[in-house]
Amino acid sequence: MDHTEPGLPIVNSSYVPILFADQSTPVEDGEDENHSPSASLLPKRSSVPLAVRYNPEDSYCLVYIIFFLMGIGSLLPWNFFITAKQYWLYKLSNNTDQSEEEEQRSDLSDYFESYLAIASTVPSVMCLILNYVLVNRLPDCSAEALILCSFSSSLMTSASSKNVFVLVHRLSPNIRILSSLLVILLVFVVTTVLVKVDVSDCRRGFFIGTLSSVAVVSGASNLFSGSMFGISGHFPMRISQALISGQAMGGTLSATASIVSLGVGGDVTDNALAYFLTADVFILLCIISYLLLPKLTYSRHYMLAASCITPGAINEGQEAETLVPPLQPILKKAWVLGLSVFYVFFISITVFPAVSSGIQSVNMDSSNPWTSTYFVPITSFLLYNAADFCGRQATAWVQVPGPTSRLLPALVLCRSVMVPLFMFCNFQPRDHLHTVLFSHDVYPVVFNCLLGLSNGYLGTLPMIYGPKVVPRELAEATGVVMSFFLTLGLAVGSAFSVLIVHLI
Question: Which domains, ranges and CATH numbers included, belong to the chain?
Fold first, then answer.
């Protein structure tokens, strides 16, 4: 055929365009006269995607739960590293004697959170660029999809058959996702083993090794996260929301585990060992859950429908190796959403955790465990992550403002005020900026809740809008592009966090 196939409706759309809805439009007179009576006996091709014509149910919400677990696993490494503050202070302190708290300060420990943020976000940008190339040049296609698409290719045009055939030579996203999870698991196993290793004589080497591990884990996590966001773009919006909500729950779980380890007491290394073993077990659970995903009817349906669709912009004579969806149509539709995601996470990582975790209780010198032990883990980590989770969950019921509303970027810009609010709390130590305007413990509680709620809600809306405002064949690539904007915001914000800490 020489005519161009019309654009396909988005899988999550609540409407079907008239072009697809009315398949019984009258034909021209010339075509009607030449119409053969036997032609009515042949099966009619429907240009409506399978995902639009038939929607199976998610039995027991298993697919939703799996994507929720994948969301937890995508940010679990980062959250487990940043919330183990007491362990890092112990490992990087000038004195490993736990009874002498006042001497447990060093340049390595004072700026560890800022260096950790840089080490985790800068490599992520490169990995997401790689992931975009892998997604576009090596699209999704499971073995089951190849078999069914090959079977149906006899009813397609020759161009469609060629495009289906070349899918055999392309890499499945299973390799990207499973290999990323295995790398994360390996690094966490090494981190768990090092818990019981005495590094008092080589703290700087341990510091460099830890940051290197964080860089590797962060790159693998973003390759994993970007691939999962791309896959979720083929599903209804509730699945994307489950993935994003799971990311917030990962922070809440890690903060809770950290607080429990503090409450149990005992040796710092024993608590850290149990803490990191929890992460090891959960990563194994993520691997098992992902292997289960293709066996579920609901997920197999949407992944099959996505893999059987060929991009409309591809010419018949174009080679398979050059099938790269261009960035221009993606950015044309989603550039405002991408910049919104960038700025939301730029502001968040600027103050969390480098600044927020340094805010101490004004009554820290008292013997109250709340002010001396639990204030920072609860106010900085638990409250922020719990509020972030609530903000992300709220998008399941309320999605206002819409993807084209100017109110969305305006609200995102309003979050800029969070930076000075945190700077003028009781951050310690203060070497340059000695003014403390918010000298009560209630202020960091309120500010962390506002930061988490706004991050969860305003960060989630653009992420789930992005893959839905582009043609269906660009949904996965758009998901990766949105993840790129997110990670770029984290990278730039982490650099600014170092500057903010030095200014204070």
Answer: 60-503 (1.20.1250)
Q: Which distant-in-sequence residues (6+ apart) come within 8 Å of 121 by Cβ?
A: 218, 349, 487, 490, 491, 493, 494
Tens digits of residue pLDDT in 272-296: 888 899 889 999 999 999 999 888 8
Give SS3 for 44.
coil
Determine the 3-state secondary structure of 427 from DSSP. Answer: strand
60 Rama sector, left if φ>0, alpha if ψ -120 to 50, beta otherwise: left
DSSP SS3 for 151 = helix
Question: Computed over its alpha carbons, how large is the radius of gyration of the chain?
Answer: 26
| Alpha helical stretches, state H, 236-359 | 237-264, 268-292, 297-307, 327-351
> 427 has which bridge partners?
359
**Euclidean distance between CA atoms 303 and 226, whole angstroms:** 16
pTM assigned to the model: 0.69
CB-neighbour burial class of residue 36 (10 A; exposed 0-12, middle 13-18, buried 19+): exposed
Nearest one of 92, 480, 138 to 322, comparing CA atoms: 138
User: How many other C-beta atoms can be found within 10 angstroms of the C-beta atom of residue 423?
Assistant: 21
Are 489 and 457 in contact by the 8 Å Cβ rule? The answer is no
Residue 236 Rama label (left phi>0; alpha psi -120 to 50; beta): beta
Strand partners, 15: none
With H, G, I as helix, E, B as strand and everything else as coil, classify residue 425.
Answer: strand
Structure tokens belonging to residue 438 = 């918010």
Q: pLDDT tens digits, residue range 92-117?
A: 875 544 444 444 556 666 677 778 87
Concatenated DSSP letters of 295-307: GSHHHHHHHHHHH
Q: Do residues 47 and 301 make contact, with C-beta atoms less than 8 angstroms apart?
A: no
pLDDT in tens, 43-84: 455 555 544 556 778 888 899 999 999 999 888 887 888 888
DSSP 3-state of 359: strand
